[in-house]
Amino acid sequence: MEGLLNEHHEAREAFTVKKEEPTLVPPEKETPKGLYFLSNLDQNIAVIVKTVYCYRAVEEKSEIKQALAKVLVDFYPFSGRLTISSEGKLIVDCTGEGALFVEAVAECEIEKLGDISQPDPSTLEKLVYDVPGAKNILEIPPLVAQVTRFKGGGFVLGLGVNHCMCDGLSAMEFVNSWAETARGLPLSLPPFLDRGLLKARPQPKIEFPHHEFAEIEDLSNLSLLYQNEGIIYQPFYFDPKKQTQLKKSVMKETPTLKNFTTFECLAALVWRARTKALQMKPNQQTKLLFAVDGRSKFDPPLPKGYFGNAIVLTYCLCNTEELTEKPLKLAVEMVHNAIQLVNDNYMRSAIDFFEVTRARPSLTATLLITAWNRLDFQSTNFGWGDPFQSGPVTLPADEVVLFLSDKKQEKGINVLLGLPATAMKTFQDLMQI
């Protein structure tokens, strides 16, 4: 582990990026002004999500910049600025100022990046612009783009997008619309911008307990463990064969039940293994959170191209002893039941719950899984072919695990997480199936 940390340290020292002064890219045509409503599903995830897209081609900055100005006409909320509404919630002031755009040059070849499926945040952070001196998210434009050229050809598009503006599916649709515009094509899926469909009901109706927001006491001193040890980031690859093996091993324990999904089995495996690796106390409560796409589950379903967060958190909650000492099938069943919970009533209840309580999900002794493996970030073609690799710059929190698609194999899944060094070794052993 120490060798791995040292290796990353050397790479960081050698990697230099020179950034020019940022410029604003406003929409090329006049766009609506005024306040733009953000739903309660947008409110809880106001964090900057940073992603990078790596291309081998010689990059034409003007094309990507001009295409951004064009696509912002359709996605005009990205040109505004976040502010606080009279209700004390996030809202977008559609000023039309534009997205922040930065040009940069890396003093090395693009191969120096290595394999970003095992991200080195200190290296990749240099490829996404951070607004200097910003004290909070209100001082950061909702969309920041940096294009970094490398010696000998190749470039990286680094994006910083505020999650309150869009979930993974909406973000993918925006980036692909931008890429279509750069190729001179009309948008295959224009955005549906009215988030009023997800307003809280005039008389809030909370029909479910919503333990996704439950506060858990840190009986296992997990916060201290993360503070005291260096965090190791590592991907764990599950090809289709390994996914099938996992599902078969679960089905052996439950032959009478219908087939579980790959997500249900993998989420349960990771939650259980991480809980064991962190050596949580037997009486420690532990929670699994994950997002379910509500687009098709609302009644009526949301319109195609809905721009915003249409994901709802669902949860599993139990004691560590129950999770780790009993067969894996019980954890899989918990995940399955959590997914079944999500319907129109549950999602409307979650929206109303936030309206009444303004609660934020607690992440103590919690694992939050974000499944990006179904998002098509691998084929974002601005006219220079697909990226040869793409992915997150880092994980947004210690408690987050990402499921990512694999470019080499369509149905392969990379499970990416960060753990304290000692826990990572145990986790590796527990992930052998």
Word description of this protein:
By secondary structure, the protein is α+β, with helices and mostly antiparallel strands. It has two domains: about 15-200, Chloramphenicol acetyltransferase-like domain (Chloramphenicol Acetyltransferase), CATH 3.30.559; about 210-430, Chloramphenicol Acetyltransferase, CATH 3.30.559. The chain is built from twelve helices and 16 strands. The strands form three sheets. Strands 1, 2, 4, 7, 8, 9 and 14 form a seven-stranded mixed beta sheet that branches. Strands 10-16-15-13-11-12 form a six-stranded mixed beta sheet. It has a three-stranded antiparallel beta sheet with strand order 3-6-5, with no helix packed on it. It is globular, with a radius of gyration of 22 Å. The protein starts with a helix and ends with a helix. Residues about 1-15 have low confidence and may be disordered. It comes from Amborella trichopoda.
Q: Could you give the topology of this structure?
A:
Elements: H1 2-14, E1 17-19, E2 23-25, E3 34-36, H2 40-43, E4 48-55, H3 61-74, E5 81-84, E6 90-94, E7 99-109, H4 121-124, E8 143-151, E9 155-162, H5 168-182, H6 222-228, E10 231-238, H7 240-253, H8 262-277, E11 285-293, E12 311-319, H9 320-325, H10 328-340, H11 344-357, E13 366-371, E14 389-392, E15 400-405, E16 413-420, H12 421-430
Parallel strand pairs: 7-8, 11-13, 13-15
Antiparallel strand pairs: 1-7, 2-7, 3-6, 4-9, 4-14, 5-6, 8-9, 10-16, 11-12, 15-16
Keywords: Acyltransferase, Transferase
Pfam families: Transferase
Family: Belongs to the plant acyltransferase family.
